[in-house]
Amino acid sequence: MKFGVIGLGNFGSTVAKALFEAGHDVVVLDRDRDRVQAMQRYATQAVIADATQKEILEELALDKMDAVIVSLGKDLSASVLVTLYLRDLKVKKIVVKIASEDHGRVLDRVGATEIVFPEKDMALRLAQSLISPNILDYLPLSPEYSLLELAPPKEFIGKSLAELRLRSRFGVNVLAVRQIIPERMIINPSADFVIKDSDVLVVLGKREDLDKIGGP
Per the confidence metrics, is the pTM higher than 0.70? Predict the structure, then answer.
């Protein structure tokens, strides 16, 4: 796959490096020479330029990318301008890192296809892990729904999903089970699947319903 990353602060450079090390083509762009030079070994192409210059973006053929990530920090005007240009260039997926929810509303209106607010997401995950020690990982999908990885509470162990009746009792769905012994992922486990203490449940539901099964 092909990706573009505009803005090489901590977030942008980390995303670019992860994508490149996963074997994908990555084009990075920043107007800071030192940042670009530091990323040369982790990019297919590293460009020193101002992303708010539309002709620069046109030269990079970003419309052929699977996604372009925009990470320009607190500079809302630059983020808006770049997002508008990317939309004009018909980029398939425009992912924008935001500094506040107000910024997110603006960028959503001008054409961002996905908004990322790392500080808020990390804060929610930390709070959830402190409140609910059984929760191993937590991913908000929308203001209402979340996905979590859950270590099974004691009362789950040795019982089948049919016996637990999680959907009817709590309104949540077990999408998958990650088994440690043996190591494998079971997608859409059957109703007669019996939970072991070493299993990890991947569960989807409303936040208030997930709290009922993930709490202390």
Answer: no
